[in-house]
Design a protein that fits this description.
A: 242 residues, mainly alpha, 2% strand, disordered N terminus, B: 36% helix, elongated, disordered C terminus, transmembrane helix (chain B), transmembrane (chain B)
Chain lengths: 242, 1250
């Protein structure tokens, strides 16, 4: 995944550059740069969204696999036979959500005017993703004595994730908000019988779900910020060129 | 000295000096002293309020600094030590199975055995969760050891195994027909055994040997369909056995192993079986367990074939659980985590930059992390914690937790240290810079992990334990392994840099050849150690064909060899790991079987209670361990046991040693451990039964000892058996054999050790193939990016060169000029010093002219100059003080010595930066090893400090106490006056009176002391200095007097060259000016040291002090270049007529400023006949704005000889030491040249336009 990620990001870079240089050469008239900037931004946004979406889908598939292995979630039997043993709508939902989150984070950063500077490099992002997968892994595979312990541990891990890789207040608040919303949505889904948990301990769902959501939000935000960094670089380069 | 007049400019200078001090060369403790963050002067008067944190920080930093020094100083021992510790810590890993695939076992007692229930029971202690329900099968092995006893010399080798193997049929009969009857009924084997049906389709060729449609009962008899007749009629048993063996490198579970039940090495079925004991098993696979039946079978067999000295334990049965095959559902998350891990490693190591070999360092980083993990697992195993987590699953997370960050931070920190420092110091400084953050991070991580430890979840606790140990070992490896590798790499980079920049610097033959050399004759082959004539310099510029370049690349990097080597290493590793040849088991068997009762694991093989991974190739406890025979009297027992007694043995002389001893050892107890762990799965898979996620129970073996008489053996012979030649009878007695085995083991161990060392060495060479430690040039090894001539195996010869430190300048060196005897240097402060290039003495000091005028008021420069110039304040002819008729020089000194700076400067503020402040330079001693340097400079300038004692102490510390306080107290650099200096002093005195009038005209314009020296050239005893104001000055090098000056041009002089009696000056605007130097008195009084005289024209500057020298602009070429000329060279000696007569004879290199990094390329030269030319490759920044570090303005010199027609490159004499490169960067160190060999030459530096 990450390899494709890098390849894609690289291709993003190169294509963006090509577009820029191409438009700069061909469109000498005064509106040329403007158009190119517009196209550049929109395509950039689209590409970023697509990448985030694919990452989200992929992670959803993989992590769901972990959960299904332990029979944490149960899907209706007719859907189980589908490709990756989860309902068809789960990966697209996760993908969309991750794309939104990944685009929202840099947006909020730029709105607040405090660009995220902490550990802005791909290796850190990869580490973050690995820790996120690890948290999921732990939630699925580690035997805890009781659910409270599990939830507390995961909460601590998630906050540790935020502290290690994000450390921004906006990230934290956004993460908490989205996690709460997502938990609510899941509650509603389960309530309506779309799917169910084998051993719900928090109303209809598992109590660790908010923690996982929070960690996922932080991770996707991290990726989104890193991707957005390329766009900033373009803009900077452009201003340099100008 | 007062500080009350210090202006912002002074502060700047202080800053400059501070930075200068920071970049000094030899300052082992400097980071402690000179950290900009820390309060200065702490070393002398530590502030009382230093927080604990700061103290700690400082201590950590100092410790890291020392550690860095240590690592960089002794790379090889440290790497060896690290490798040894890694191997030691990883040794316990040998007991662990391969992650994920190894089966696990669980031992229970036989007596109270009952089939476990399916339901998970509460807490049954250590009972693993797979131990539920009945096993797939029970394995009952009957271990048969048979021997023909006593051995008769009339027997042939086949007798060793024919009759013992023949016994298998009767045993089989016995087992099959065994019936146990008691109250509950009659049970036979048929009712209990595992009934198998067809073989797996595709195994038709095994149909003949493996049972079908019946009991799964395998024995060697299967080779002959369990029919005695077939066996008896088989002419060649070995061939039959071998027939079913797969060809080539067989895997560990072969048919032979399956049938014999013991590894092939132990069966003893061969012609060369010296022990003459045949071992095999009859394996009965039972589907249900009936203790009474088995007990009666055991008793029956024991009764039939008693094993006298057998003490095998029979009370444990081992349940072996086989792992599931990994399904795709498990595989995908696993693969994902690994992909993320690799992406992480990739993105991390991608950041490694500015090093010689990125790949090498990335590999080192990965090795650091991986081996730290291995070490952690090994250590945990050593201390009794068996990993229960799936190693493959948690491994990526462990790597991510431990991380590569520290390694990267270390690398970054080290490469960002000043490049002109020594490697050791760079490493040390880099380490100490990052020490605090590293320690902080580590403490944080440890805290987090410890918190995780208290979650009290067993899995997380285990993970945390591994992570903690891994973190600590990772820290250890970073500190020792990675730092050392980094230092090696940095050293390599420095060497490579040196060799690239200085392809062949080395000493030019001294341009002032002492003896005359016949001119037109081509130079005789120079002293061979210093020159190697290489073919085709043109290769450098030639574009080689692509395939040639590929070949060169292959040859240069030795790619093929390295790949082969790495492949071999990997292969050997695989061999050792999988152990197909059974070396380990062989060794173990050799050792253990030599001991009669061979109970190596009496203590080493406790009943395996609990979960312990199994199925190594051999029993690790008995591997390589030599146990003394616990039974002190094996022989009597053996006699009692032998059926035929000692009588026969007594009859035959060879007999006693030839009595085969059947021994039962602990390794027989669980002989199946020596089998491959795929043994049972493969056996069951033949019948399409999978053992994945299931378990089998292995019952204790039934030992059967069979002694056969020679008569029996002879009777069962096949007629063809005797045709085999008897093997060479072992001549050695048994005890000698034991000894030999010991020797063998020792020799093998020694060989293994040597092999290991060689392997490590090879690996080391692969990783760090270039020699790094030696300063100087390498032998044999070649560097990428060198001259192509190096591609042919040339390595420049090495000569011993020790750098000579010339100290005295207070600022960065800007220009250097030399003619071999003298070395003139000019620093940014405008001070020109003339050094004796051979001895390193400072002969003359020419201070900045503007300063001199005002010196009567301040006097600081002068006093400094006076000391340096003449070497002692007692010298009455001290140039400056004499010239001004004042006492300042000595006076200032004495005042300082007395402790109170009396002199207050009355001079007004001057426009220049550096002239208007007290000269603290005497207190800057770059020799930081001996005294604290920075306290004065960085102390806020305030009046009233008493520095006297400080100064005095500094002096006293540095210099040996001199009888007189006035005797050469000053600088660290000025050596005691040499003979040459003493000789020259009178002349100094002579000229002194004439100086003021000379200087007067030159000190006119204000701009004079604003201008700096941009170019300098030295010829004879004349120094030509070109200033930024466009003024050309001629100084007397020895006397330090201004001989004449010319201010015809306004553009700054950027380059100078002497040509006989002309001086060519290149100006900033690209024009060339030609000055003629006229000497009124033609007679040369001084010995000329430059090019030899020739003809009537005074060819070179050769002046006496009485001469009146004038310098006139004779010709000017405007716009010779469009860009400023940076380098200007004239043929030395001016030997060529063309060069003498016409200015076109100059080799003027057109310089082209390439925008990209700071390289001046040269192009265009005029062919010159039989003249030595200096080609100067200039690497420097030509514009000050682009010049971040003036120290980058280094110059590499390359001496070439051009023949008339065919260019002929000559290898240079040996390169001078690497330290040459740092000359211009080190302040307070005028020049460190290597001038101890006659072939090294002081190089002139290209003007660094500061």
């Amino acid at each position: 995944m990450s390899l494709t990620l890098t390849a894609m990001s690289d291709s993003t870079v190169t294509s963006g550059r090509q577009q820029w240089s191409g438009s700069g050469q061909t469109l000498q008239p005064p509106r040329g740069p403007f158009i190119s900037v517009i196209t550049n931004r929109t395509t950039n946004l689209l590409i970023r969204g697509a990448m985030l979406f694919s990452v989200g889908v992929f992670l959803a598939l993989v992590l769901n696999l972990l959960q299904v292995q332990r029979n944490v979630t149960l899907f209706p039997p007719d859907v189980i036979s589908s490709i990756f043993s989860s309902a068809w709508w789960v990966p697209p939902c996760c993908g969309t959500a991750s794309a939104m989150i990944g685009l929202l984070y840099p947006c909020i950063d730029s709105c607040l005017g405090e660009p995220h500077k902490f550990k802005r490099e791909w290796s850190s992002v990869m580490r973050c993703v690995a820790v996120f997968v690890g948290i999921n892994h732990a939630s699925a595979k580690v035997d805890f004595a009781n659910n409270v312990q599990l939830s507390l541990t995961l909460a601590a891990l998630s906050i540790g994730l935020w502290w290690t890789f994000d450390r921004s207040r906006s990230g934290f608040s956004l993460g908490v908000t989205i996690a709460l919303l997502a938990t609510l949505a899941t509650q509603l889904l389960v309530y309506n019988g779309v799917f169910q948990y084998t051993s719900p301990d928090f109303l209809y769902i598992r109590s660790w779900l908010p923690c996982i959501f929070f960690a996922g939000v932080i991770t996707m935000g991290n990726i989104g910020r890193q991707l957005a960094l390329y766009e900033y670089k373009f803009i900077q380069e452009k201003s340099h060129q100008d | 000295m007062s500080f009350d007049t210090i202006s912002p400019g002074d502060a700047f200078k202080l800053g400059v000096l501070g930075s200068v001090e920071k970049r000094s060369l030899d300052a082992p403790r400097r980071p402690v002293l000179g950290r900009a963050v820390l309060p200065n002067g702490r070393e002398l008067t530590p502030p009382a309020r230093m927080t604990l944190r700061k103290q700690l920080r400082e201590k950590i930093s100092a410790a890291f600094y020392r550690h860095g020094l240590l690592c960089a100083s002794y790379p090889v021992p440290i790497i060896l030590f690290t490798s040894a510790s890694i191997l030691t810590c990883c040794y316990p890993l040998l007991r662990l199975p391969l992650p994920g695939t190894g089966p696990v076992e669980f031992t229970t007692g036989v007596r109270d055995y009952s089939v476990p229930s399916h339901e998970p029971q509460g807490d049954l202690g250590e009972r693993p969760d797979w131990y539920r329900g009945p096993p797939v099968a029970y394995i009952q092995q009957v271990l048969v050891k048979a021997a023909v006893s006593p051995w008769d010399s009339s027997l042939v080798p086949v007798d060793v195994f024919r009759s013992p193997l023949g016994r298998v049929f009767s045993l089989l009969e016995e087992i099959r027909n065994h019936v146990h009857s008691d109250s509950s009924g009659i049970r036979s084997l048929e009712s209990l055994c595992l009934q198998v049906t067809d073989l797996f389709p595709g195994l038709r060729r095994m149909q003949s040997v493996l049972p079908e449609h019946g009991c799964l009962l395998v024995s060697p008899g299967n080779y002959w369909q369990n029919q005695r007749e077939l066996f008896d009629s088989d002419a060649d048993l070995l061939k039959t056995i071998q027939k079913h063996e797969p060809k080539g490198l067989h895997t560990s579970a072969t048919l032979r192993d399956l049938l014999f039940g013991v590894p092939g090495k132990y069966t003893g079925v061969s012609h060369y079986n010296r022990k003459r004991v045949v071992t095999y098993t009859i394996t009965v696979v039972l589907s249900s367990y009936d203790a009474r039946f088995l007990g009666s079978l055991r008793a029956r067999l024991k009764q039939l074939h008693p094993s006298a000295n057998c003490s095998l334990r029979e009370d444990h049965m081992v349940h072996v659980h086989f792992k599931e095959e990994i399904g795709i559902a498990e595989l995908i998350p696993l693969v994902t985590t690994y992909i993320i891990l690799f992406a992480y490693i990739y993105f991390s190591t991608r950041k490694i930059d500015m090093v010689k070999s990125k790949w090498g360092l990335a590999l080192a980083a990965v090795v650091t992390v991986l081996s730290s993990l291995l070490m952690s697992v090994g250590l945990c195993t050593l201390f009794g914690l068996t990993p229960t987590l799936n190693g493959g699953e948690i491994f990526p997370y462990l790597v991510v937790v431990i991380g590569l960050e520290n390694v990267l931070v270390l690398t970054k920190s080290v490469v960002s240290t000043p490049v002109d420092l020594e490697v050791k110091l760079r490493i040390a400084q880099g380490l100490s810079n990052e020490s605090w953050s590293i320690m902080k991070n580590m403490a944080t991580e440890l805290c987090i992990i410890l918190i995780g430890y208290f979650t009290l979840v067993p899995a997380i606790q285990e993970f945390c334990l591994f992570a903690v140990v891994g973190l600590v070992s990772d820290f250890f490896l970073q500190m020792f392994f990675f730092t050392t590798v980094l230092s090696i790499d940095i050293r390599r980079m420095e060497l490579a840099d040196l060799n690239r920049r200085l392809p062949a610097e080395a000493g030019l033959p001294p341009p002032k050849p002492g003896p005359l050399r016949p001119r037109e004759v081509p130079p005789p082959p120079r002293p061979s150690p210093h020159t190697i004539t290489l073919q085709t310099p043109a290769f450098r510029n030639l574009r080689l064909p692509k395939r040639l370049r590929v070949v060169y690349f292959l040859a240069r990097t030795r790619l093929a060899q390295r790949i082969i080597m790495v492949g071999t290493v990997i292969w050997i590793g695989i061999l050792v790991y999988t152990d197909p040849a059974g070396i380990r088991t062989y060794l173990a068997a050799q050792v253990s079987e030599q001991s009669p009762l061979g109970d190596p694991g009496g203590a080493g093989l406790p009943p395996h209670l609990g979960v312990a991974p199994v199925f190594r190739g051999g029993d690790p406890t008995s591997t390589l361990s030599i146990h003394p025979a616990p039974d002190p009297t094996p022989l009597p027992e053996n006699q009692s046991q032998g059926h035929h007694g000692p009588a026969r043995a007594g009859l035959l002389p060879q007999a006693p040693p030839a009595v085969p001893q059947i021994t039962w050892g602990a390794e027989d107890e669980e002989g199946w451990r020596r089998l491959s762990f795929r043994h049972w799965p493969s056996l069951f898979s033949y019948y399409n039964i999978t053992l994945a996620k299931r378990y089998i129970s292995i019952l204790p073996v039934i030992p059967v000892t069979v002694h056969l008489s020679p008569q029996e053996a002879i009777e069962t012979r096949h007629p063809q058996d005797t045709r085999h030649p008897p093997p060479p009878i072992p001549k050695v007695s048994a005890d000698l054999q034991t000894d030999l085995t010991l020797y063998k083991v020792a020799a093998l161990g020694l060989a293994a050790g040597v092999l290991l060392v060689l392997l490590l060495f090879c690996l080391y060479r692969v990783l760090c193939p270039r020699n790094y430690g030696q300063n100087g040039v390498s032998h044999g090894r070649r560097r990428r990016g060198d001259l192509p001539c190096d591609d042919y195996g040339y390595s420049p010869p090495v000569s011993e060169i020790s750098p000579l430190l010339l100290r005295g300048h207070s600022m960065d060196i800007e220009c250097l000029a030399s003619d071999g005897m003298l070395l003139a240097s000019c620093c940014l402060a405008g001070q020109i010093r003339v050094w004796d290039a051979q001895t390193g003495d400072c002969l003359t000091v020419i201070p900045k002219p503007g300063l001199r005028r005002s010196s009567s008021s301040s006097g600081c420069w002068e006093q400094r100059d006076g000391w340096d110039g003449v070497g002692g304040a007692t010298e009455p002819e001290c140039l400056c003080s004499e010239a001004h008729g004042s006492y300042v020089g000595i006076d200032g000194l004495s005042e300082e010595e007395e402790g109170y700076p009396l002199r207050r400067r009355t001079a007004p503020i001057r426009p220049t930066l550096f002239n208007d402040q007290p000269d603290l330079t005497p207190l800057i001693d770059t020799n930081f090893t001996s005294q604290p340097p920075s306290h004065l400079l960085s102390t806020p300038p305030r009046a009233g400090f008493d520095f006297g004692g400080l100064v005095e102490r500094a002096y006293m510390e540095h210099e040996p106490p001199s009888p007189s306080a006035y005797t050469s107290p000053s600088s660290a650099s000025s050596s005691p006056p040499t003979g040459a200096q003493l000789q020259r002093r009178p002349s100094l005195g002579d000229i002194a009176a004439a100086l003021p009038p000379e200087r007067a005209p030159s000190s006119g314009p204000q701009a004079d002391w604003e201008s700096s020296v941009w170019a300098m050239e030295l010829r004879g005893n004349l120094i030509a200095a070109g200033r930024s104001s466009g003024k050309l000055e001629l100084w007397d090098a020895v006397e330090g007097s201004l001989r004449c000056s010319n201010e015809d041009g306004v553009s700054g002089i950027t380059a100078l060259a002497f040509l006989n009696n002309r001086i060519v000056a290149a100006r900033l605007n690209g024009s060339l000016d030609f000055f003629t130097v006229e000497i009124n008195k033609p007679l040369c009084l001084l010995q000329y040291r430059g090019a030899p005289l020739r003809g009537s024209v005074p060819p070179s500057p050769c002046y006496s002090s009485e001469d009146v020298i004038s310098c006139q602009l004779t010709r000017s070429v405007q716009c010779a270049h469009h860009k400023p000329i940076t380098v200007l060279r004239a043929p030395p000696g001016g030997s060529s007529p063309a060069a003498r007569t016409t200015p076109s004879g100059f080799i003027v290199w057109r310089t082209r400023v390439v925008s990209s990094p700071c390289r001046v390329t040269l192009e265009g030269s005029q062919p010159y006949t039989s003249t030595r030319q200096w080609f100067w490759r200039v690497e420097g920044r030509t514009a000050p704005s682009a010049c971040g570090m003036s120290s980058q303005g280094a110059v590499s010199a390359m001496f070439t000889v051009t023949a008339a027609t065919s260019p002929h490159w000559s290898a240079p004499p040996p390169a001078s030491s690497a330290r040459d490169w740092t000359t211009s960067s080190v302040s307070g160190t005028a020049a460190q040249g290597s001038n101890s060999t006659p072939y090294s030459r002081k190089r002139a530096a290209a003007p660094v336009w500061a």
